[in-house]
Design brief:
It is a single chain. This protein is an alpha/beta fold. It folds into two domains: about 350 residues, Spore Coat Polysaccharide Biosynthesis Protein SpsA, Chain A, CATH 3.90.550; about 120 residues, 3 Solenoid (UDP N-Acetylglucosamine Acyltransferase, domain 1), CATH 2.160.10. The protein has 14 helices and 27 strands.
């Protein structure tokens, strides 16, 4: 077959056209198709999406939540003009889940989705605001999530839909950026385009116009796995009065913040940028994760002015020009021998560069309780946190700073591994500074961790008996290397039967 001049100039064009054809065949909205075409062309042109440390400088918050006044009247009016969108597109495949991550039990039998819904309902009752909640679902999470929402018949307000469905795009073969085929499970041929798809989805679905028609002027967006992300009345009042088009919440970095992004300022023009882990060159990773150089992490909780957002979307034909995020994986994420693919993604926080009045707002760690892996999940399930109707279903940490949990990924990476090794629930961590587990350890009931505790790999399966008190050093330094005490029913770790 002869090679055309177009193919010579752009050898990846056939792959792009094939991918676009697949998207249109399954009914992906045109704004999302255009966003994909733009990202594919950038990828084919050699764009990496990397943000170099030499080109940016650190960012400190311009506004701090703790400095904002309590203004009940203004807060209620601002909340009544605010809608909430929660990103709910993830399956949690990195944690071994096959269903929506939001349906994973996290505390007292309640799931991420249960807690998110109850937080919004409690804030409605307390403030008198309408405060609609919409999920941004993916094709993989929608049915199960909507089934769960049926337990909350009072959630829908103003005849708004309970969710919007984000688009999907083909995973691309690394060698030619053409859509991959995976006959063993065709569902794995598709992936979500990242949460930057929020913007074309709101426009194409008609939800953005519906919100404006009903008098909503502000949008609060957060991740479903961040249970600290409840719309704050003081922040709502400040944002409404500020006139800003965009605000991003940032919080102090801790030792648990190994993944995620942070805001930086581009030296060339002074614009704020979001730099994600996938946008960081390997040689810059040390700087990017340096808590002294970049002490504030991006929570992915955003405040947006809806009229400004609509105007910006119309300017860009319904799809914002967001920075490229290039993710290389395998078509089956659980099979490292399957076909290598590229997933072309964007982050909704990348829109910060499009607003010349964007603001970074400093908030406390109580507003950032992410669960990206089993380390955080174990902490969340422990007695470190309390949650209930009396707190408006907000998670309240009983200790500060939070303990640092580090579990051996070979044995605890997946949720089913975690559940199998903590069959009686999480140990008490309220007196812990850190818990580091290496090797295959199963924990019995009513285990207590104090100070800095490390369990080393002793080969084979080991067990911490019921009632054991694991006690390490309490001061700074590497900490203990094993248990220092026992409790009722326990004599210290032993070999598993």
């Amino acid at each position: 077959m002869a090679v055309t001049t177009q193919e010579q100039q752009d050898p990846f064009r056939p792959g792009r056209e094939a991918a676009v054809a697949r998207m249109r065949a399954v009914g992906v909205a045109e704004p999302a198709v255009r966003a994909f075409e733009r990202q594919h062309a950038a990828l084919a042109g050699g764009a990496s999406g990397l943000i170099r440390e030499a080109d940016v400088e650190p960012v400190a918050p311009q506004v701090h939540l703790d400095d904002l006044p309590e203004e009940p009247g203004s807060a209620r009016a601002a909340l009544d003009a605010t809608a909430v969108v929660v990103l709910n597109g993830g399956l949690g495949t990195s944690m071994g889940l096959s269903g929506p991550k939001s349906l994973l039990p996290v505390h007292d039998g309640l799931t991420f989705l249960d807690l998110t819904v109850r937080q919004v309902l409690a804030l409605r009752e307390a403030s008198g605001a309408r405060l609609p909640l919409l999920l941004m679902d993916s094709f993989a999470t929608r049915d199960a999530s909507l089934e769960r929402l049926a337990a909350y018949p009072d959630l829908v307000v103003d005849d708004l839909p309970p969710d919007v469905l984000q688009s999907r795009e083909p995973k691309l073969r690394v060698e030619d950026l053409a859509p991959v085929d995976h006959p063993a499970d065709p569902r794995l041929e598709w992936c979500p385009p990242g949460h930057g798809d929020l913007y074309p989805t709101l426009m194409a679905s008609g939800v953005l116009d519906a919100l404006l028609e009903r008098g909503y002027r502000h949008l609060f967006v957060s991740n479903v796995d961040n249970l600290g992300a409840v719309p704050d009345p003081r922040l709502a009042a400040w944002f409404a009065a500020s006139g800003a088009g965009y605000a991003a919440e940032v919080c102090p970095r801790t030792a648990m913040d190994r993944k995620g992004g942070h805001l930086v300022r581009r030296r060339a023009d002074g614009r704020l940028l979001l730099r994600d882990t996938a946008q960081t060159a390997s040689e810059d990773m040390g700087h990017a994760t340096d808590g002294e150089r970049h002490p504030w992490v991006h929570t992915n909780s955003l405040w947006l002015d809806l009229p400004r957002l609509r105007e910006l979307l119309l300017t860009h034909d319904g799809a914002l020009p967001l920075p490229l995020i290039r993710n290389t994986k395998t078509v089956d994420p659980t099979d490292p021998t399957s076909t290598p693919v590229v997933q072309v993604e964007s982050a909704m926080g990348g829109a910060v560069a499009l607003f010349d009045d964007a603001v970074a707002v400093g908030v406390g760690r109580d507003r950032f309780v992410p669960v990206k892996g089993t380390d955080e999940l174990l902490l969340l399930r422990s007695d470190v946190y309390e949650v209930g109707a009396g707190t408006g279903y907000r998670l309240l940490a009983g200790v500060d700073p939070l303990p640092v949990v580090s579990l051996d990924p070979e044995h605890y990476r997946f949720v089913h591994d975690l559940d199998a090794r903590f069959p009686d629930g999480a140990p008490s961590l309220r007196e812990a500074v850190s818990l580091q587990v290496r090797g295959d350890w199963t924990f019995g009931a009513q285990v207590v961790v104090r100070g800095r505790v490390r369990l080393d790999d002793r080969g084979g399966a080991r067990r911490v008996p019921d009632g054991t008190v694991l006690e390490g050093s309490a001061g700074p330094g590497p900490g203990g290397t094993g248990p220092g005490g026992t409790g009722p029913g326990g004599t210290g770790p032993e070999e598993a039967p």
